[in-house]
């Protein structure tokens, strides 16, 4: 309580009580009580030394926070950090190690880097506007005890401020309103280059990255803002993709891949002109052939023939064999096999198998249906008969 009360009258006090508070929490909360004598670790001794050396230096300081004279906007994305101060934009990209940190860590680190980008700022007060509540808390509370990593950055920030005689306050701003800093933290030429290099790694999302890759090159060629392009420009790009031979489904995928760049993607997704364009491209596309390339099932049937259809064979093998033969004989999908109603199945006097598939994926006029199938016995090849 004495430590906490002292912070009211001494502005950087919380910077030099975190180790003491953490030491207290660790020991008191672990049933060691208040009355036990414990040796203090070095970090706690360093804080007490600071109090001994600096306590009298802060006499006469104002107990109330000063009114900020300047405003700084800060934001961090997965790839970059950015900030705006009096229309001056600073930005940079994260290292691989920094990108692996939490968004709270990156937001605090962005504040630190942006303050370092303006070394001429001294003897003044700054309002830092951020869309990260945790970063706001760790700035205004001079750190915290929940995260050691966040506390280290917050302490570093305040040490820098103390060195430059800066007073900073953090204020939350909704992400949708933090446009300038958000823009600065996202895409620059160097970020786009790194993005293109990373987009070719791995098989997952290659089609998605392909659309983004094409859009970036197209946008560079025509000097288009990749973060604030218009609906008309997006339609022009999608039309070009369709004219280049990309299928309508792929063009639709490109649409979602590209809108991820925009600072206000909701304005694009709700555009009636964009929906009309995609619908028109589908209607103009050539008919899809339903024929498929032939597949030789001989190896599969040879293997199935090696599984005897009698009681000595395990139920697991027989089930797999039956499922494959049923699918091959009736052209069933795996989902159809899953929906076979066993209680409704029957074999008539002619050894014909009647199957009922309940609620398959297909619908008729928006209503669920069921399939009634009949399979004839394969009398001349019992080993491959599904009945």
Automatic annotation (TrEMBL):
InterPro entries: DNA/RNA_pol_sf, Hepadnavirus_pol/RT. CDD domains: RNase_HI_RT_DIRS1. SUPFAM superfamilies: DNA/RNA polymerases. It comes from the Eukaryota. This is Reverse transcriptase RNase H-like domain-containing protein.
């Amino acid at each position: 309580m004495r430590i906490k009360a002292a912070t009211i009258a001494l502005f950087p006090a919380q910077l030099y009580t975190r180790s003491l508070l953490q030491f207290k929490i660790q020991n008191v909360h672990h049933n060691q009580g208040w009355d036990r004598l414990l040796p203090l670790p070095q970090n706690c001794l360093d804080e007490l030394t600071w109090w001994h050396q600096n306590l009298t230096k802060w006499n006469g300081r104002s107990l109330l926070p000063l009114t900020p004279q300047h405003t700084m906007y800060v934001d961090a994305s997965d790839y970059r950090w950015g900030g705006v101060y009096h229309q001056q934009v600073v930005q940079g990209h994260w290292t691989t190690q920094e990108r692996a940190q939490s968004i709270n860590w990156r937001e605090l680190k962005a504040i630190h880097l942006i303050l370092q980008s303006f070394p001429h700022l001294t003897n003044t007060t700054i309002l830092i506007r951020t869309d990260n509540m945790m970063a706001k808390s760790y700035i205004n509370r001079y750190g915290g005890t929940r995260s050691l990593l966040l506390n280290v950055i917050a302490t570093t920030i305040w040490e820098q401020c103390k060195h430059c005689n800066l007073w900073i306050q953090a204020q939350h701003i909704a992400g949708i309103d933090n446009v300038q800093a958000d823009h600065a933290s996202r895409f620059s030429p160097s970020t786009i280059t790194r993005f293109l290099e990373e987009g070719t790694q791995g098989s997952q999302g290659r089609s998605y990255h392909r659309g983004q890759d094409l859009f970036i090159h197209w946008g560079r060629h025509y000097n288009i803002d990749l973060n604030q392009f218009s609906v008309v420009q997006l339609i022009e790009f999608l039309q070009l993709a369709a004219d280049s031979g990309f299928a309508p489904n792929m063009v639709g995928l490109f649409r979602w891949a590209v809108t991820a760049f925009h600072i206000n993607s909701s304005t694009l997704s709700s555009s009636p002109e964009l929906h009309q364009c995609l619908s028109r491209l589908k209607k103009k596309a050539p008919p899809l052939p339903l024929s498929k390339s032939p597949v030789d099932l001989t190896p599969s049937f040879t293997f199935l023939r090696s599984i005897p259809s009698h009681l000595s064979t395990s139920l697991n093998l027989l089930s797999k064999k039956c499922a494959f033969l049923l699918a091959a004989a009736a052209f069933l999908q795996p989902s159809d096999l899953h929906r076979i109603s066993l209680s409704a199945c029957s074999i008539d006097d002619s050894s014909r198998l009647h199957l009922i598939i309940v609620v398959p994926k297909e619908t008729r006029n928006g209503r669920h249906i069921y399939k009634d199938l009949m399979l004839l016995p394969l009398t001349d090849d019992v080993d491959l008969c599904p009945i």
